[in-house]
Amino acid sequence: MVQGVPRVVKPFFSIIVPCCDVEPYLRDCLESVLRDPFQDWECILGVETSKDGTEGLVKEYLAKDKRFKMFTGPRSGSCSASRNTGIDMSSGEYVIFLDGDDTIAEGSLKQLHDKIAERPGADIYPCAMPVIDEVHGVELPLRDNYPPDFSGELTGPEATLMAYSRRRDPCPMLQLSVFRREHLVKNGLKCLHGMKRQDSEFTPRALYLAKRVIPIHVPFYLYRIRTGSISTLAKKTDYFLKDYAAILKSLLAFHAKVSTEPGFDRRISAYWSRHWLMWIIYYWFSTRSMRGSPRNYRIEMLQRIFADGFGDFDALVRAGSRSRRVAAVFVKLFARRPSLAWVADAFFRFVYNPLAELKDVART
Fold first, then answer.
1. Helices (H), the chain
2. Span 16-36, average pLDDT
């Protein structure tokens, strides 16, 4: 150290907490951090304009402990802005994303620290997530994208393949993992602004681009499905349609870029094709979506995905199964020829969807 220049001590964890209208839950959230035996952290609270006493409660904790830091912003309807600003403000070696209406398990920061200290420097440490469904009063199965007995080390592409092969639809929630801050900053990993399902776009990119991924299976994040949350307020079938248009446009472009790089594993294209094309089929062409969303609105949202042409879409479709390649023809017809959109709707309603349901029954 240069004499006279103080050494900069970085916290081990930066915990980023978006806060908007979460006053009834926020005290439990912050207390779960405070009472953990591991204390080398900073907690960055992004407070958006709220209708309740969220900001006042945050200021109470600022006065209580200098490790709490706050920034404010306008109401955006999404966690993206707060998470992105939190990444920029953070100084810790590792980043944890915690929502203001959730908590962490008792002693979990200590467990995370000890596991990471055993094998430091990985870009992502996937964990496990207990889920409490307060709407129905039940605890759901533990979420873990990797086999509980797996203790090895993976590259990002290897971790992508394992997660997709293990789960039919891997949970994209970014709260499920601990991220090395340098990984986020170096790769420009930010959440799409204004998205309600931004995890679905952020997590596949963050995972694939990681150099080292070490699943540690610690059940640290207690996820609460509650009345009044974004997911439970999503009653209309087209609630997320605009979001998924932006998400899919970004992911298709990401695949088109990385799939041309040397050494790319074509199995990843097949997995992404299976899941991302199914998002289009479900959100635009399921029977429920066709009944609940006006056709013109579905056309408009699908055309947003293809605003720059069909090249990125075609690159992913080529890796898909024969049935999805056929489905893609009708997806493009729906977007290209609005006057014939009814033909695409008829194909999915009377041919594709019934056959897919029969396949699902056969699997079970």
1. 23-34, 54-64, 80-89, 108-118, 156-166, 181-186, 199-209, 230-233, 241-258, 266-285, 287-292, 295-305, 311-317, 322-336, 341-347, 353-363
2. 96
Q: Look up residue 69 and give its two tokens.
A: 């830091």
- Is 215 in contact with 123 (CB distance < 8 Å)? no
Over residues 125-141, the mean pLDDT reads 86
Residue 201 pLDDT: 95
Measure the CA angle with vertex 75, ends 73 and 77; round to 5°: 130
Angle of the 156-166 helix axis to the 199-209 helix axis, nearest 10: 130
Q: d(Cα 266, Cα 235) in Å, to the nearest integer?
A: 37
Show the domains of the chain with their CATH numbers.
13-233 (3.90.550.10), 241-363 (no CATH)
- pLDDT tens-digit map of 190-211: 999 988 889 999 999 999 999 9
- Write out the two tokens for 350: 């009377």
**How would you classify the pairing of strands 221-225 and 129-133?**
parallel
111-115-117 Cα angle (round to 5): 115
pLDDT at residue number 227: 61
Give phi and psi for 144, each to the nearest 5.
Answer: -155, 120
Q: How confident is the model at residue 163 (pLDDT cuts 50, 70, 90)?
A: very high
Residue 234 pLDDT: 46
Closest by Cα among 11, 21, 73 to 43: 11
What percentage of the chain has pLDDT greater than the value 70? 92
Q: Region of 98 please: left (phi>0), alpha (psi -120 to 50) or beta.
A: beta
DSSP characters for 277-295?
A: HHHHHHHHHSHHHHHHS-H
**Taking the CA atoms of the chain, what radius of gyration do you get in angstroms?**
22
Residue 178 pLDDT: 98
d(CA 241, CA 247) in angstroms, rounded, equals 10
